[in-house]
Write a structure and sequence with these properties.
Blueprint lengths: L8 H12 L3 H14 L4 E7 L5 E6 L6 H6 L27 H7 L2 E7 L4 E7 L2 E8 L4 E7 L6 H5 L4 H18 L4 E6 L2 E5 L6 H9 L1 H5 L1 E7 L3 E8 L11 E5 L2 E3 L2 H9 L13 E7 L4 E2 L10 E2 L2 H17 L14 E2 L5 E5 L6 E5 L1 E2 L25 E6 L3 E6 L2 E6 H18 L5 E11 L2 H9 L1 H6 L3 E4 L4 E8 L7 H13 L7 H16 L9 H12 L14 E5 H7 L6
Parallel strand pairs: 1-7, 11-13
Antiparallel strand pairs: 1-2, 2-6, 3-4, 3-6, 4-5, 7-8, 9-10, 10-13, 11-12, 14-15, 16-19, 17-18, 20-21, 21-22, 22-26, 23-25, 24-25
Helix pairs in contact: 1-4, 2-6, 6-7, 9-10, 11-15, 11-16, 14-15
Length: about 575
């Protein structure tokens, strides 16, 4: 008797649902993407209890005929691809034909759709068609998903809290709104409006709606292309960053995607402009011929493979670096305007991307009750890279230099400033072809474990290129007889040990530039003025003059700011000397 049998369709759809429908946000994603593919210009998402009780998506797309409405719930039913060749020319967000069948198998669905004549209502529960009837002729589609996972209790039990489910949904909706600013999106939960965009096609306005006016003011537009790729979008100034990568949003041909190499390249482009353990806010649109990308990797269609990826990574990296180099990156400490809160007129929930907690906040108004509008305020940072002329007048806590000029006041962190100066000096020495070293009066002997010693011995030639005179010295030991001239005086032994540790710990895919950068940053820190160290006025002036000569005078090599700025008007507002 045969043991192997074909599963029935409902069972196979439930299994597929395990890949496609992980949580409420997965349902929202699939339904909203279908609405976008249906050429909708307005999409509303209405939730009850964060989508656990009901998810309703309303669009004004092209709608469906009765036959297509019924067929759409069959597995692998799709209008988006027909043959194998279409897989290499995908222009829609959906194409696998699995989503509706998977969702229908684990929920109670009502579909109302029409192309403008007689509408169709389809009701499906647990994968079984319960009802098909005529409905009104409103052009577009309304799809309601109720009682999600009612017949898969294990999946229902493992749904997160209402706040977490809502946070995941809003995270997706924020990103999809940024990927399609030409579509008007509205999201409500239990009748409360969480997101509303105007569909004007203005990406910066969309960023303002999601992140707020203060973040939108600190975004920089980018635009570049090469033979295969075109990129555009916005990147944040280095002073704006988050604790995770979730706000690096990459969009390929209108599809939100994730690619580790691309995200790493974007973050690395900010190297030395921000702390390494923080990440920028980036909305990056990538346009590419569909034959050069593959999105058919995972059912969520978020993973992607690029052809000629090195060309894309170079384009992204060079564009971001060039843009940052052309900006004056001194954080401006502004006095916030007095806010009048009108809780009865506007209420909304804004999600902080760094936490799953949802907080109610009121729409902010300036005193004349007019909503702050974003125009060209992102261009307030002039494309001037010169460090401003300023004059030191004192030192606070032996750490912060107070300076002034005709437009305002500056505070400089003397350690961060000196770190930047030393970093660029050491980096230049490391990249120099000149062989400059100093013989040690008392050679340094260091013993390692056998595994560390093997790695170090393998890199003797590399260390000699760095102007170290290093040799074997007994079992698992080395002796250093000379070192580069740029090591901090009085701390040579510790510096040598630190550099050798960096060599031992270097990555498998060793990159000389990254190694040199790491060495330069480490040595610069050890060579710099420490906090709580008093310096003379002449030393302050020399420090500022040396900082002005740096390629990037605005940040220390670890990404901390060297300088912050208070304008004259900000100071007057702080002391209530001017109107506000």
């Amino acid at each position: 008797m045969a043991v192997i049998k074909i599963m029935d369709e409902i069972l196979s759809n439930k299994i597929a649902a395990g890949e496609v429908v992980e949580r409420c946000s997965s349902v929202v994603k699939e339904l909203v993407e279908n609405s976008i593919d249906a050429l909708s210009t307005e999409i509303k998402v209405e939730l009850l209890e964060s989508g656990i009780k009901e998810i309703k998506v309303i669009d004004n797309g092209i709608g469906m005929e009765k036959e297509d409405a019924i067929m759409s719930f069959n597995r692998h039913a799709t209008s988006k691809i027909i043959d194998e060749d279409d897989l290499y020319h995908i222009h829609t967000l959906g194409f696998r034909g699995e989503a509706l069948a998977s969702i229908a198998s684990v929920s109670n669905i009502d579909l109302y759709t029409s192309k403008g004549d007689i509408g169709t209502h389809v009701n499906i529960k647990g994968g079984k068609v319960i009802l098909v009837e005529n409905s009104d002729a409103r052009i577009g589609t309304i799809i309601s998903v109720k009682d999600l996972f009612f017949n898969t209790p294990a999946r229902l039990k493992h749904l997160k809290s209402l706040y977490t489910e809502l946070s995941n949904i809003m995270d997706f909706m924020n990103k999809i709104a940024l990927s399609h600013p030409e579509i008007r999106f509205v999201v409500r939960n239990d009748g409360k409006e969480l997101l509303k965009t105007d569909g004007s096609g203005n990406l910066l306005k969309c960023i303002k709606n999601i992140y707020g006016i203060n973040i939108a003011k600190k975004m920089i537009d980018i635009n570049a292309c090469n033979n295969d790729y075109k990129i555009d979008g916005y990147i944040s100034l280095p002073e704006v960053y988050r604790t995770n990568r979730n706000n690096i949003i990459t969009i390929v041909n209108g599809r939100i995607v994730k690619n580790t190499e691309l995200n790493r390249t974007i973050n690395d482009s900010y190297h030395s402009y921000k702390p390494d353990n923080y990440y920028p806010i980036v909305v990056l649109n990538i346009e590419v011929d569909t034959t050069l990308v593959d999105v058919n990797i995972h059912p969520t269609k978020m993973d992607i493979k690029f052809g000629n990826i090195e060309e894309l990574l170079d384009l992204v990296s060079n564009t971001i670096k060039d843009k940052l180099k052309k900006k004056t990156l001194i954080p401006h400490i502004e006095e916030k305007p007095i806010i009048v809160k009108e809780t009865k007129k506007y209420e909304e929930i804004k999600l902080d991307f760094d936490t799953p907690i949802v907080n109610d906040v009121e729409e902010e108004y300036i005193v004349n009750n007019e909503l702050i509008e974003l125009e060209e305020e992102t261009q307030i940072h002039e494309d001037v890279v010169e460090f401003p002329i300023m004059y030191p007048i004192g030192l606070v806590h032996g750490t912060y230099i107070i300076c002034q000029n005709e437009i305002g006041m500056y505070l400089l962190d003397q350690h961060a400033c000196k770190e930047r100066i030393n970093y660029e000096i050491v980096k230049e020495k490391l990249n120099s072809k000149r062989k400059e070293s100093i013989s040690m009066m008392f050679p340094l002997t260091i013993e390692y474990t056998n595994s560390e010693y093997i790695i170090l011995k393998e890199n003797f030639d590399f260390l000699k290129e760095l102007n170290f005179d290093i040799e074997e010295f007994g079992i698992n030991s080395v002796i250093v007889k000379a070192h580069p001239v740029w090591l901090p005086k009085g701390n040579e032994d510790n510096s040598i040990k630190k550099i050798l540790e960096l060599v031992i710990a270097k990555e498998k895919n060793f990159n000389l530039d990254k190694f040199n950068d790491n060495v330069a940053a480490t040595m610069a820190c050890k060579m710099s003025i420490k906090a709580n160290t008093a310096i003379t006025m002449e030393e302050m002036e020399n420090l500022i003059n040396d900082l002005r000569k740096c390629k990037n005078p605005f940040n220390c090599p670890h990404g901390r700011p060297t300088t912050i700025y208070y304008s004259k008007s900000d100071l007057e507002k702080l002391f209530k000397r001017s109107g506000f």
